[in-house]
Amino acid sequence: VQRLANQRRGVVRNSAGDVGGALLEIGTVGGADALGLPAGRIEPGNWADFVLVDHEHPSIQGASDEQLASALVFGGSRHVICEVMIGGVAR
Fold first, then answer.
1. CA dihedral in degrees (30, 32, 34, 36; nearest 10)?
2. In a structure prediction context, what are the per-residue pLDDT tens digits for the chain, which is 91 residues long?
3. What is the pTM of this model?
4. Which is it for strands 89-90 and 50-53: parallel, antiparallel or unpaired?
């Protein structure tokens, strides 16, 4: 919505100025909050839902720790996910 309203990219940024990190947080923390679910954050009492990412996958290979969120959001394919944990159980 912000991109359309402002007619430019990269409008949504986190405190570090990272667009990918902000979008990832909106999808995880914001999504869980919107649904009223105890998820989206790594903290006691929240669901243990995670994905394991292959840092060597070609779509994100070479991304630094600081670039990883943006690499996942803008360039990562579904094949970058090695394993899914739902409620702390590998699926």
1. -150
2. 666 777 766 778 888 888 898 999 999 999 999 999 999 998 999 998 999 999 999 999 999 988 999 999 999 999 999 999 998 899 8
3. 0.76
4. unpaired
Phi, psi of 52 (to 5 degrees): -100, 125
Q: Which helix (H) or strand (E) holds 86?
A: strand 81-86
Record the tokens describing residue 8, joined without a space.
């430019």
d(CA 6, CA 72): 24
Contacts of 73 (CB under 8 A, 6+ apart): 19, 20, 23, 24
